[in-house]
Amino acid sequence: MAGGFILLSFMVQVSCTHHEPTDLTATAFIPLPVRVEATGDVFRLTSGVKIYAQGELASSAQFLASELEGIIGTKPVVKLSADPPRRGIYLSDSGADDESYELQIEKKRVSLTGSPAGRFYGIQTFLQTLPAARSEGVVYIPTGVVNDQPYYAYRGAMLDVARHFFPVEDVKKYMDYLAMYKMNVLHLHLSDDQGWRIEIKSWPDLTVIGGSSEVGGGEGGYYTQEEFRDLVQYAVDRHITIVPEIDMPGHTNAALASYAELNCDGKATELYTGTRVGFSTLCIDKEITYQFVDDVVREIAEMTPGPYFHMGGDESHSTPLEDYIPFVERVQDIVVSYNKKVIGWDEIAHSDLAEGAIVQFWANEENTAMGIEKGAKVIMSPAKRAYIDMKYDSTTVLGLAWAAYIEVDDGYTWDPENYSPAIKRENILGVETPLWSETVTNLKEVEYMIFPRLPGYAEIGWTAPDQRIWEEYKFRLAAHGERFEALDITYYRSPLVPWKE
Ligand code: TNX
Q1: 3-state secondary structure at position 65
Q2: Which residue has its alpha carbon closest to ligand 1 atom 5?
């Protein structure tokens, strides 16, 4: 017995002398792929590795090369090749037009095939087999096969750049984090009572005046159209769709302060730097209001390749319902006239809904059910589970608590299609976690709120419900702590997650 034990531990030692991991299924993938099969060998990644790609795939190959440079120290050469090489990394087009991919890791070769988006996600999966930081010498990767595709089409996060402004570089970082976890939508909340953040050339004071404030009295800021286009391109390169939101008819004080004529009494309001909601409204009866909306939607739609325009519509407590309903209908017509689909917070379901309109569920199940009856699809952002601006617990300094405390497990252990009896799988377009920024003022604070909850929302969007098990997920999440540290991400070390020392 003792002899057997010694022999066994000797063998384990020998096979471990190079710290070669051979079980691909032991990799801490987030989101969990549909299928991972281990084949028990290793691929040796060295600084001499080459990437081969079919001609039109150069962009995913270049993305992978840059990411690998951070780990192996040199940027791999990218070569065009119509045929698979004998060794190295090979990217090919599967011809599919979905988000699926297959990643095959063999002893001498790594092959990734998928649509452009699928390959991008396959690259993210491959990167999760590697160490988080620069590593000296050979990197050993377990062999096997991953077959994967997402459960929901819409996997998003929102950033409220209106309550506090975040510069272009921060928004790009936010997109990097979404991309790491295969999220494909960035919803930008571009206007609110406290600030207007996007240049509109036909209404320049929106940013000159409305862009100059934020919660707490800071200097605010805004994106020029050139900067916004740069963000759009950054998103396109990462297979992320930007959903621009201009919130109306409420949440409009920054616009009302910029242009007197948008107010029913013809007087501009004062800029606002507090955090109350529900006190502002566009003037529903004035024709200039619709000229304004038309100009704003047109200029933003021109810069946005994605299919959506988000018209807000929430908490319009200063707009009587009999005004709210026709306003929302008219704005929908404008959005549709610029070939965009309307998204609105669940209150918009009080109105008739345009073809293809989408209701974003945040608070009210009856509204959402009404929207479904009117033919809308639903984005699931229930505040009690998905609002990433909620505090983790009563001791969290940042964040709000009006909906709930959302510990890391609370953020993970809910199922969009079992949240409300009125909302079924076939009604759901996907999931979004909104980060409102009343209390969040800079990138480090953003990181603290979204890490480590963001990967959980990504997994809810990507992985089938029966594959999502907190008691198993928490170990994978713990392993990502090293990644957060390697990337210098500030995060909440929840006591519920078995972090490594
Ligand atoms: C509710 S959610 C709001 C926002 C706030 C948020 C804070 C929604 C559609 N409206 O105006 O920022 O709560 O959690």
Answers
A1: helix
A2: 436
Q: Is 494 left (phi over 0), alpha (psi -120 to 50) or beta?
A: beta
SS3 256: helix
Ligand 1 near 99 CB (within 6 A)? no
Average pLDDT over every residue of 94-108: 96
DSSP letter for each residue of 332-373: HHHHHHTT-EEEEEGGGGGS---TT-EEEESS-HHHHHHHHH
Structural domains for the chain = 24-148 (3.30.379.10), 154-471+478-486 (3.20.20.80)
- Is there an atom of ligand 1 within 6 Å of 214 CB? no
Sort strands 358-361 and 377-380 into parallel, antiparallel or unpaired: parallel
Known active-site residue 20: no
**Percent of the chain whose predicted confidence (pLDDT) is above 70:** 96
Would you place residue 5 in the very low, low, confident or very high pLDDT band (cuts 50, 70, 90)? very low
CA 440, CA 438: separation in Å to the nearest integer? 6
Q: Which helix (H) or strand (E) holds 111?
A: strand 109-114
pTM above 0.90, yes or no: yes
Measured CA to CA, the distance from residue 266 to residue 262 in angstroms comes to: 7
- What is the pLDDT, as a whole number, of residue 252? 98
| Residue 302 C-beta-side C-alpha neighbours within 13 Å | 11
Instruction: Assess whether the previous peptide bond of 31 is cis (omega < 30° from 0).
Output: yes
Substitution candidate for ligand 1 out of 272, 380, 436 with most atoms within 8 A of CB? 436
